[in-house]
Design brief:
Elements lengths: L2 H10 L2 H13 L18 E5 L2 E4 L4 E4 L2 H4 L8 H11 L10 H13 L5 E5 L2 H16 L3 E5 L8 H4 L5 E3 L6 E3 L14 E4 L4 H8 L6 E6 L13 H13 L3 E5 L11 H4 L6 E5 L9 E5 L1 H4 L21 H12 L3 H24 L5 E3 L4 E5 L8 H4 L3 H16 L2 E2 L6 E2 L6 H15 L12
Parallel strand pairs: 3-15, 5-8, 5-9, 9-10, 10-11
Antiparallel strand pairs: 1-2, 2-3, 4-12, 6-7, 11-12, 13-14, 14-16
Helix pairs in contact: 4-12, 5-12, 13-16
């Protein structure tokens, strides 16, 4: 039996995962404790990670293209982080007092990210975005924010309102952001302006009626959940000019896209934000979030002379474990390391795109640097409506993800995929080979075959 055939056969055998899912259903709604967990028809439960690979509870070894939703730049069990954290565990994992570890990680971020002059640490990307919005409100004295349809910014009410689109409201007579969940206060949408990413001509028209009430424009420089839409240079330019003219702050959400380069994503796309939110890679595999930016804007968190305008605490904020792990992981990512990952990413995106053309298949590849996403469409989407999947396209992506798993590769079905530093050219070729095999199946062939 060939290696590929053996891997595929092993992918079907997951009895322990099935048993664990049954147990999970007794204690968790839907059997899991994160809505992002892939159920097909039940999760793949993992036992351990080894560099670029994970091993599930049934003994299947999988190349990890998820890396906990792009968090792990160095894959699993990265020795410098393991050693540093192991040493730290003996000394204490959390204190009410500060440690020098938080200063060291803050200095690293300030030295790398041009837009960050000062920083505050929190525990997640959601918290980072929440406090960035609060800081913008406090600094400007305005309540409203603008955000782009389809982009994901965590679970703060004002950040997630509008993620799933908008509707024309008879009550307000304007485009109104959709709530993210049933029962959400309808008044939240009154202070959220929904925009279309890359809509150069319509940007000013959408923003002008709200200019005096807007504290900030919240933007992911390359919206991942919306499909890795590449920002048009003229769009970034027009957005920046409008914000500056009307005293509106720009919040760049780089919780995911900070991994696009040594200096982050805003620098890459010539965006000069007033605030930046970070997370994921800066924690070295441990929970973390950060909001940073201009010194004068960040001063709203200060308490040098009086009570802070924006109280920000958090029992585990700046905990030593996350600080040390993050610093070690980031120090190990030099500009050369980012460059190597980008070259691997370019190679993979190119190979996958060429295979889609070769087999006349309805797939296209988006992304940048170490990030990529396979779209079940012939052209790379340029707008969020273009990126939306039909039920048939979503089913096709589930089939692709399932096929990859059966062939020893963990590929997110509807989220960003990413590379890690332990990966090799051979790993890239394995991904391309699995994709080509899928394209020769009835599920992965030409679009006409699906109709």
């Amino acid at each position: 039996m060939s290696t590929v055939t053996a891997a595929r056969a092993a992918g079907h055998v997951r009895p322990r995962s099935a048993d664990l899912y049954h147990r999970g259903r007794g204690v968790f709604p839907s059997g899991v404790t994160r809505s992002t967990v892939d159920l097909d028809p039940y999760p793949t439960y993992l036992l351990r990670g080894e560099g670029a690979y994970v091993v599930d509870v049934d003994g299947n070894r999988l190349l990890d293209l998820n890396n906990n939703f792009t968090t792990l730049l160095h894959g699993h069990g990265f020795a410098p982080v393991v050693d540093a954290v192991t040493d730290l565990l003996r000394k204490g994992t959390c204190f009410s007092n500060p440690t020098d570890h938080e200063i060291a990680l803050a200095e690293l971020l300030v030295s790398r990210i041009p837009a960050i002059e000062q920083v505050r640490f929190v525990n997640s990307g959601t918290e980072a975005v929440m406090f960035a919005i609060k800081a913008a409100r406090a600094f400007t004295g305005r309540p409203a924010i603008a955000r782009f349809e389809g982009a994901y910014h965590g679970a703060y009410d004002w950040a997630e309102t509008g993620q799933y689109g908008s509707f024309d409201s008879a009550r307000t007579g304007r485009r109104t952001a959709r709530s993210a969940y049933t029962g959400a206060p309808g008044t939240t949408a009154d202070t959220v302006v929904v925009l279309d990413f890359n809509d150069v001509d319509g940007l000013e028209e959408s923003l002008m009626p709200h200019a005096k009430s807007l504290a900030a424009i919240l933007i992911d420089p390359m919206p991942s959940r919306a499909g890795f839409l590449k920002p048009l240079p003229q769009f970034i330019e027009r957005l920046s000019e409008f914000a500056q003219e009307h005293g509106i702050l720009i919040i760049a959400d780089e919780v995911l896209n900070l991994r696009q380069g040594y200096n982050g994503a805003s620098f890459r796309y010539l965006l000069a934000p007033d605030l930046v939110t970070a997370g994921k890679i800066i924690g070295g595999g441990f929970p973390i979030g950060a909001v940073g930016g201009r010194r004068d804007v960040m001063s709203v968190f200060g308490s040098d002379a009086k009570a802070p305008l924006v109280p920000q605490a958090g029992t585990f904020s700046a905990n030593p474990v996350s600080m040390v792990a993050g610093r070690v992981a980031m120090e190990a990512m030099t500009s050369q390391d980012f460059g190597r990952l980008e070259r691997l990413g370019d190679r993979l995106r190119s190979q996958l795109s060429e295979l889609a053309v070769k087999h006349d298949a309805s797939f296209s590849i988006a992304g940048a640097a170490s990030l990529f996403r396979i779209h079940p469409k012939r052209k790379v989407p340029n707008t969020y409506p273009d990126a939306r999947t039909t039920p048939a396209e979503a089913a096709r992506m589930r089939s692709l993800s399932r096929f990859f798993r059966e062939n020893g590769i963990l590929l997110p079905a509807d989220a960003a995929a990413c590379l890690s530093t332990p990966m090799t050219d051979g790993d890239i070729d394995s991904v391309s080979s699995a994709f080509e095999m899928f394209l020769t199946t009835s599920e992965g062939g030409k679009e006409e075959a699906q109709q």
